[in-house]
Amino acid sequence: MFNKIVTLRNSLVTLLFTSLVKITSVFKVSFILGSVMAFFSLTPMVQPLIGVWGGLFGSSALFIIGIALRLMMYGSISFILLAYHIPGLFASYALASRHWAVHVALPLLCMALFIVHPVGAAAFPYAFYWLIPVALYFAKKELFFFRALSSTFIAHGVGSVVWIWAQPMTSSAWLALIPVAFVERMVFALGMTLIYHTVCGVQKVISTKKQAMTGVAE
User: What is this structure's pTM?
Assistant: First the structure.
C-alpha cells in the first residue's frame, strides 16, 4: 500500500511539473548565444525542482513525457530541443540524488569532453565552472542555494558539451561567455531557491491548517 501511495504521489508531482514546465517555457529570460532563435526561459528554474519532490522517477518521467508530447505535436525532435532539455534532466538528477557519480564524475566528464574538442581546448578556462559542483559535493554544503547552484552548473556542463560538439562556435565566443554564464547560473540558482522555499512555505501552511482542523474535529 505504501509503495502505491508513493507511486501515485510521484505521478501527480510529475504531472504538476509537466504543466509548470510548459507554462514557464513561455517566459523568456535570455538569448542562447551561438543559436539562431533559441532562448532560455524560466524552465531551468522549475524543471530541476522535480528532483526534490519527484525523485529520480519523477525526473525521468518528466523528460520522457516532454519528448513524447513533442513527438505527438510535431513528429520530430530538433537538436535545440534536446540541447535545452537534456541538461534539465541531469539538473533534476542532481537535486534528486547526492551520489558522487552525479556531482563529481559527471562534471569531470563534462570537463574532459569539452577540453578534448579542438575549440574547447582553446577555451579551457570556461570548463573550470564545472569544478563548482565537485567542490560543493566535498564541502557537503546543505543550504538549498548551494544544492541549486550545483544543479544548475551540472546542467551548464552537460548543455555546453552537447553544444560544442554539435554547433559551430569559436573559442573566443566561449571565452566571452564566461562572465555571462556566471550571472546566468546565479540567477537560475537564486530563482530555484526562491521557488523551493515558496513551495515549502505553502506546504507548511497547509500542513498547519490540516493539523488545526484535525484538532478541532477531535
Answer: 0.78
